[in-house]
Write a structure and sequence with these properties.
The protein is an alpha+beta fold. The chain has helices at about 15-30, 35-50, 55-75, 115-130, 165-170, 235-255, 260-270, 280-285, 295-305, and strands spanning about 85-90, 100-105, 135, 150-160, 180-190, 205-215, 220-235. A six-stranded antiparallel barrel has the order 1-2-7-6-5-4. Strand 6 (about 205-215) and strand 7 form a beta hairpin.
């Protein structure tokens, strides 16, 4: 605000009661949006003002709203839905400035990939003509030389919020893992000969981490990607990651409050039965049958044994 601008400070919001009014509106909207933890943060600013004015009627109302917010946190627990995220890449000169740009889209809670895919295809189909738009179905890196220059290509990939291990120490609650997030990850399985999936001993994985310009939730539901990092996991590292995941799932299922026998049974069957991908026995036979001669690989060998 520039103070010499006429009338700027005499507006109806530019007063204590105006500020309180705006903050109360914000708290209501946060509450409607299911972000109950932020309601508390907003009222932390309002309460001292009300206390200074000894406005007990409003204080009583504010505290009852706070109680509602805290009750919602307790009652809804893990059932709260904070959104689903997708990475969308645009390729083709038809897009103009959007060409080769990547965005992360935040979609309502349980949005499936076909839904967003259908919506974007329809939207850009209206812009460029239905025949001119094509959705790239995989998440592999796009080679622009292989694309038809007269078409507009959209690549859509499901992404999950990503945190470093040190961040996880601070992000304990379900809310903290879904609020103020700007890094996302997706994985692409591949083998050296170009197929996406192969035997355990040849299964590599590419982890791509994207950083967005602003943190979600944001005013807009799509935000530019400003940085991408890639990590290649070797077959034994892929096996370690899978085994760790299984162990975490088992721990979660065994320590669930209240206990859920069905859930435990499902996790156990998924851990032991080798139906879809090769089970733990196969992993052990492929990677742990002999001690590797290369000392660099020995660390991974040890990690995998610890996982077992």
């Amino acid at each position: 605000l520039s103070p010499d601008e006429d009338g700027i400070c005499s507006g109806r919001y530019f007063s204590e009661s105006g500020l309180v009014g705006l903050l109360e509106q914000a708290a209501e909207l946060f509450s409607t949006g299911g972000l109950y933890e932020t309601v508390n943060e907003v009222y932390k600013i309002v309460i001292p003002i009300l206390e200074a004015h000894q406005d007990f009627r409003k204080l009583a109302l504010t505290h009852s709203k706070l109680q509602k917010a805290f009750d919602s946190i307790i009652n809804k627990g893990q059932k709260r839905m904070f959104g689903t995220y997708f990475r969308v890449g645009f390729y083709g000169s038809k897009f103009g400035d959007l060409d080769e740009q990547e965005f992360v889209y935040k979609e309502p809670a349980i949005t499936k990939l076909p839904e967003i895919s259908h919506r974007l295809e329809g939207f850009y189909g209206q812009c460029f003509g239905e025949d001119a738009v094509e959705v790239i179905k995989d998440s592999a890196p796009v080679d622009k030389r292989k694309l038809d220059p007269n078409k507009a290509y959209i690549q859509i990939t499901f992404v999950e919020p990503y945190f470093d291990e040190y961040e996880m120490k601070d992000r304990v609650t379900y809310f903290e893992k879904n609020f103020n997030i700007c890094r996302f990850m997706y994985t692409t399985p591949f083998t050296m000969d170009g197929r996406p999936r192969g035997e355990l001993s040849e299964q590599y994985k590419r982890n791509t981490i994207l950083t967005t310009m602003h943190a979600f939730p944001y005013i807009k539901t799509r935000v530019n990607v400003i940085q991408r990092e890639e990590f290649i996991l070797t077959p034994i590292e892929v096996a370690i990651e899978d085994m760790r995941k299984k162990t975490q799932e088992l721990t979660a299922a065994t320590n669930q409050e209240p206990p859920d026998a069905k859930m435990l049974q499902m996790v156990l069957q998924g851990s032991v039965g080798a139906t879809v991908n090769q089970g733990p026995l196969e992993v052990a036979q492929v990677f742990l049958a002999e001690i590797p001669a290369d000392p660099k690989l020995y660390r991974h060998h040890n990690k995998l044994r610890l996982c077992f």
